Amino acid sequence: MINKPLSTLETHLGYWLRMVSNAVSHSFGRKVEAEGVTVAEWVLLRMLYDVDRSAPSLLADHMGMTRGAISKLAERLLEKGLIERAPSAEDKRAHTLALTSGGRGLVPRLAALADANDLAFFGGLTAGERQQLEHLLRKIASERSLIDMPVD
């Protein structure tokens, strides 16, 4: 019986994907933390930027997080004065979340940091390579039914 040699770490695509993903994520995390928020808080702020108000349950569904996790994020953002809570117009027992003027002003700055971080890591790719990489990553995500937003 012939023993097949063990694969090295570097022979796995997951190794390279994780290496790049960690570097991109950690770099962006440091940048947004310098602005006083976490990556998860940034994702929630960015989602609220495109809507007037949203129920926490809808945010939880879109972000692939539990309602409890959204509540904790919302509490931190409320304390920072970046979002506000108001009774729901449809159901007075429920509430909605919306950006404050401070939160609305912060989102474009954080988006610029995200754009700069992407450019730093992927700016060396041609437009075609970038499109191909995005296509392949989206294909894998779709085939594996990966729908939760990456927030950590």
Structure write-up:
With 152 residues, the chain is mainly α. The protein has one domain: Winged helix-like DNA-binding domain superfamily/Winged helix DNA-binding domain (Arc Repressor Mutant, subunit A, Orthogonal Bundle). Helices cover 61% and strands 7% of the residues. It has a two-stranded antiparallel sheet. Helix 1 runs antiparallel to helix 5 (101-122), helix 2 (39-49) packs across helix 5 (101-122) and helix 3 (56-63) packs across helix 4 (67-79). It starts with 12 loop residues before the first helix and ends in a 9-residue tail after the last helix. The mean pLDDT is 94.
Summarize the structure.
It is built from 6 helices and 2 strands; from the N terminus they run H-H-H-H-E-E-H-H. It has 152 residues and is mainly alpha-helical. Strand 1 (83-87) and strand 2 form a beta hairpin.
List its salient traits:
single chain, about 150 residues, mainly alpha, Arc Repressor Mutant, subunit A, two-stranded antiparallel sheet, 6 helices
Q: CATH architecture, please?
A: Orthogonal Bundle
What profile does the largest beta sheet have? 2 strands, antiparallel
Which residue ranges are poorly predicted, with pLDDT under 50 across at least 5 consecutive positions?
none
Discrete helix count: 6
Kindly report the CATH topology.
Arc Repressor Mutant, subunit A
- The helicity comes to 55-70%
Side-by-side strand order of the widest sheet: 1-2
Shape: elongated
Looking at this structure, what is the CATH superfamily? Winged helix-like DNA-binding domain superfamily/Winged helix DNA-binding domain
Structure summary, number of beta strands: 2
Mean pLDDT reading:
94
- Could you say how many structural domains there are in total? 1
**How large a portion of the residues is in β-strands, by DSSP E?**
5-15%
Top CATH class: Mainly Alpha
Report the order of strands and helices. Answer: HHHHEEHH
Structural class: mainly alpha
Rg, Å, rounded: 19 Å
